[in-house]
Amino acid sequence: MNGAGGQITIAWQILEHEGQSYRYVPLQPVLAEAGEKARRLPYALKIVLENVLRQGRHDAAALVTGWVESCHSEGEIPFCPARILMQDFTGVPAVVDLAAMRDGMKALGGEPEKVNPFIPVDLVIDHSVTVDVAGQKDALEQNVAHEFSRNRERYSFLRWGQQAFDNFRVIPPEAGICHQVNLEYLAPLVMRKEEDGVTTLFPDTVFGTDSHTTMINGLGVLGWGVGGIEAEAAALGEAIAMRLPDVVGVYLEGRPAPGVTATDIVLTLTEQLRAEGVVGKFVEFFGPALDHMPVADRATIANMAPEYGATCGYFPPDALTMEYLALTGRSAEHIRLVEAYLCTQGLFRKGEEEPLFTTVLRLDLASVKPSVAGPKTPSQRHDLSAVARTSRAALAADKQDGARLPIGTEDAALAEETLGAGDVVLAAITSCTNTSNPAAMLTAGLLARKARQRGLKVARRIKTSLAPGSQAVTRYLERAGLLEDFSALGFEIVGYGCTTCIGNSGPLQVDIARMITEHDLTVAAVLSGNRNFEGRVSPYTKLNYITSPPLVMAYALAGTVTRDLTTEPLGHDEAGQPVMLADIWPDGTELAQLMAKSVVAEAFASGYATVEQGPAQWQTLGDGKANATFAWDETSTYIHSPPWLRGDAGVTGPICNARILALFGDNITTDHISPAGTIAASSPAARYLKEHGVTPAQFNSYGSRRGNDLVMARGTFANIRIRNEMIPGSEGGITRHWPDGEEGAIFDVATRYQQEQVPLVVIAGRNYGMGSSRDWAAKGPRLLGVKAVIAEDFERIHRANLAGMGILPITFPKGVTRQSLGLTGQEQVSIDLPAELEPRQLVRVCFTAPDGAEQVIQATLQLETEVELAYIAQGGILPYVLRRITVADGANVQH
């Protein structure tokens, strides 16, 4: 089966199953031909192998099978996902770009209808619900009404896209979080494609425009987050070039102790894998613990791959996966076909396999302890017993004296309550990480029930919310009889979508917010989410802790993060007796019995019965066939035709005498670069909205306005917590214009530079672009005139996004930093780029101080593939792909 030069050749084979014939690309003959070691490829790389074989890329297949020789490769391969998953924050700008490409196609004399996704694209509207109302019986209804009031224009645009584009499906609001809907409803695990009367089978693989797309790896579907622009290119048939990754094996053994949840396991793994260093690598789980680890627990672990830094955290499908498919409503016929295909291909885990890995780590689940992560990153794990000590240390660093203050009388319900440093003011059971996990949700509900029975209550000053990840969660909580217990402690259902951990936590009570501001109180949020970066959860909470749903409930009852929940009481019952957490924690038998009773197939079937219809507000947005091109409304502050295809050339030569727009330290997240939350009243974006007749009450969020480039450019680097070292001691998106040194908002200063035709660069430290997959974190700087970002290193997705928008990602030489160079931001920067760029080549960068002194370094151009070089030359992915489509269509492409 070896072709000329040792390249692998393949022939299609037929799988006969239950009277039907299916075509597939066989893996077993290819692995056998490649040698005994090739049979021990990690499961995730076997899926990659099938992908490149099906593309006919036998050269790439040889690279994959050759990986086993050293369990490492410098090779580059093309990857074509089977489908794309989007959420609305990242999906709206993607559909805006597709609409703009149709305009571009028409302008070039082609047929706009030819611009369509080539592969299935699902967009789940889940990121726009905000917890405006909480702790009330009608919270859900009020929040849905607010959501449609704010977002009608965006939603109408998505309805147009749903009708105008082929291969594009929209799951309306109130279905749940996209990753949970993907896990429980969308993912087939094995794809079927009908072509010319032949059905082809192949593994389900997915790119998502949200970094937590990795959750689907818990089901055995290989998938990870990419930038919106990469996803658009893949949807339009562009193979995405990627370096063949190292694969870190994680051997799991043992069983968790009583009281340990999947959240505790993933926080422990996040700490361990961050310490190991798995950025840009696949992680694959194996070992005897998988024989009894439910898919819901696997999904919890896979979800947080961005937090431990991996491209994905993969669990091979096995018998428990087939049980989960049945539980969640996939047909028996489909499940039998899936198992037959996976077994034929050697992709079904049976337990005796011993894959080869680049590195192997081990975790005995019996060693895991109840855990909390915070107060600023998901990798800051603490044993539950250590949280009080570490939070007190954080308060001491903030010089909080511990005094308790009366809240005030504006809200009579709060008149007798006090507020002090370390108090919990926000407690949210939210996020795909945990609301997909029935054991975690039922444990939280049982804890609430037992707390009620002991007479415990949650303080009125705490904003409490329950945001189930899907309607199925509500169905099984109803069957368990636990919704009343959640409700009694203030945890009313507030919406179905991503809320608190994306920054959609909504306002705090007026008196609480006033007191925090007036007294500069350091207060806390506890959430069962996956993100707690500074300024993300709420502008009022400096301490933000991630933990399991039951521990969110426990901290809400305790009311503070300074109490040790392992040794101090949550509160006192009506008889004055202390109530310890251990007293009300559900035992395993009770939980198992309730799981068996309530987490049943009917709960999922009823939860998803009408998921594609949407609520009444969605159904009234209009039906009928949409025009091929979108009718842009120039007065709209939500949807605007972007400038990506209007002839802005790429970087094709040296960058001379650029100015530094901002000088940043370590850990600048995509939230810092392009915030998703509140639009500050004094910001350039607010000024723009006011000029267009939008009142502050109608500002909505940056995330909801990602379809308008004019708003998002003004929101770039506008996070209230970002710190620009050009203005020491400052917070917020401000900088200086040089050579005059005038201070101003980053957008305003960038606009001045653009008028002066001065190119810009951004300088940063380590982990630049960490956090959520966010294409606007690359699009925004592009609109500000940024030509390059020079940092110590980059987060994987953001580096690719920068390349996709035509911005050069460049890294300092090892041991060289902005600090070692003594950069102040006043320097001019020149980057020598040869006419012919190469991946990962060295480039000369010269920093010239105001006095003329020069410092020269040899920096590394972090473009990894030839395709990325082409993106840079043509101004980004979208112009590149449009050119390809128009050439294929025969249109005039002489720009």
CATH topology of the largest domain: Aconitase, domain 3
How many domains comprise the coordinates?
5
Computed structural class:
alpha/beta
Coarse morphology: globular
Q: Let me know the CATH homologous superfamily of the largest domain.
A: Aconitase, domain 3
Enzyme class: lyase
Domain Aconitase A/isopropylmalate dehydratase small subunit swivel: 686-814
Family: Belongs to the aconitase/IPM isomerase family.
Function: Catalyzes the isomerization of citrate to isocitrate via cis-aconitate.
Describe the SSE topology.
Blueprint: E1 13-17, E2 20-24, H1 28-34, H2 43-54, H3 58-66, E3 76-79, E4 83-87, H4 88-107, E5 121-124, H5 139-164, E6 168-171, H6 178-186, E7 190-195, E8 198-203, E9 205-208, E10 222-225, H7 228-235, E11 240-243, E12 247-253, H8 262-276, E13 282-286, H9 295-303, H10 305-308, E14 312-314, H11 319-327, H12 332-345, E15 359-364, E16 371-373, E17 381-383, H13 387-397, E18 405-406, E19 418-419, E20 424-429, H14 432-435, H15 438-453, E21 463-466, H16 471-480, H17 483-488, H18 510-519, E22 523-527, E23 541-546, H19 549-558, E24 571-572, E25 578-579, H20 581-584, H21 588-598, H22 601-607, H23 616-619, E26 655-663, H24 670-673, H25 684-691, H26 709-714, E27 734-737, E28 742-745, H27 746-755, E29 760-763, H28 776-784, E30 786-791, H29 796-804, E31 808-811, E32 828-832, E33 842-848, E34 854-861, H30 866-874, H31 877-889
Parallel strand pairs: 4-5, 4-9, 5-6, 9-10, 12-13, 12-15, 13-14, 20-21, 20-22, 22-23, 26-29, 29-30, 30-31
Antiparallel strand pairs: 1-2, 3-11, 7-8, 16-17, 18-19, 24-25, 26-32, 27-28, 31-34, 32-33, 33-34
